[in-house]
Amino acid sequence: MQHSTTCAIVLAGGYATRLYPLTLNKPKPLLPVAGKPIIDYVIDLIRQVNPDTTVISTNKRFKPEFDTWATTTPIKVKVVAEETLREEEKPGAVKALHQLLQQYTGYDTYIVIGGDNLMTLNLKEMLELHKRTGSPVIAAYTLKDTREASRYGVIESTINGTITTLVEKPKLPKSNLIATCCYILPAHTPKLLQEYLEKGGKPDAPGYFIEWLVKKTRTLAYKFKGTWFDIGTPEAYLKANLTLITHSISPKAEVSSSEAVESIVEEKAKLNKSLIVSSYIGHSTAVENSTVKRSVILPKAKVEDSTVSNSIIGENSVIKAHRLKKAYLPDHTKIGT
Asked: Looking at the chain, which residues constitute the CATH 3.90.550.10 domain(s)?
């Protein structure tokens, strides 16, 4: 029996302007959530199916960061960059995908996943559904609040999962079932993308291509339960961290006269006379004589004589004698110094 070939594409070419200031100097997929980069969760999904090729599609500005990250991955990945350095130069995610796939034709199956997807999903089962039916398959998630669905592609489907309608960002959603950026697509996807663009399809959000695809060919919704986060804002990023944090203190952390409750404290972090509750403390971060609650402090930061709650503090920041609440600070912020 001939081997069926699979190419996994991770979309990581955006500039995540809605997450500013956290992503001014770092791509969103490399932001840590509960101790590991968002894209590592995507790689965990991809490893379920062991594709022949895995490609990270990014931009010229952030390619060096992804190249460095790629040296740490458990599977071999290829980092490919579009020639852009800022948001205004982007060709759009769909057009960038089309251009990329011109280099990766000839595969039987394409798996396309957003590099900021954080979800619990049985990708192997989803792939088997595609192979069994030959149809494109979209990972679909049920939101608790239908009103939130207007920000996404809203799905209506039959009892057997066939998508009857998919409307991208409707003003009045008819369903709380949405399409996430996780697709399994057939061998002729490069030609489909070309046809879509030639007919005037929007080149930016991939959801518009999927909306067009649903009208053209039978497409299935793979409904999954569990965790899914749309990390589009600092508030959502903080929420994802707080949801996934499990208590873990590295044996290489230094904890003196301090207490850490339901928190992650990474290696080489130093806690002195401090209380840490439901928070993430990055590696080589120092917290002294401070209280930190429901917050994320990224690596190599320093917090002294301060109270921090519901906040994010960027790498290499220094906070002294200050009270922070619902603050989202970029890397290298200095307060009270």
From this structure: 6-234
CATH 2.160.10.10 intervals, the chain:
245-335
What six digits make up the tokens of 267? 């290696």
7-11, 49-53, 142-146 — which is least confidently predicted?
142-146
**What per-residue confidence (pLDDT) applies to 145?**
84
Three-state SS sequence of 175-220: CCEEEEEEEEEECCHHHHHHHHHHCCCCCCCHHHHHHHHHHHCCCE
Contact present, 119 and 228 (Cβ < 8 Å): yes
Are 152 and 176 contacting, i.e. CB atoms less than 8 angstroms apart?
A: no
* Domain 6-234, CATH: 3.90.550.10
Structure tokens belonging to residue 96? 């960038």
Cα–Cα distance for residue pair 312/295, rounded to 1 Å: 6
Q: Give the start-end residues of each E strand in 67-152.
A: 78-82, 109-114, 117-119, 137-142
d(CA 174, CA 156): 8
Calculate ∠ Cα 35-41-34, nearest 5°.
20
Nearby residues of 116 by Cβ (< 8 Å), 6 or more positions away: 12, 14, 16, 28, 29, 38, 39, 231, 232
How far CA 187 is from CA of 10, 203, 234, 305, in Å, comes to 17, 21, 37, 59
Tens of pLDDT along 44-101?
999 999 999 999 999 899 999 999 999 999 999 999 988 877 777 777 788 888 989 8
Bridge partners (DSSP) of residue 76 are: none
Distance CA 86, CA 107 (A): 31
How far CA 286 is from CA of 239, 246, 268, 318, in Å, comes to 23, 20, 9, 9
CA distances 288 to 256, 271, 320, 336, Å, are 10, 6, 10, 14
Structurally, what CATH architecture does the domain formed by 245-335 represent? Answer: 3 Solenoid (2.160)
Secondary-structure percent of the chain, ordered helix, strand, coil, rounded to 5: 25, 35, 40
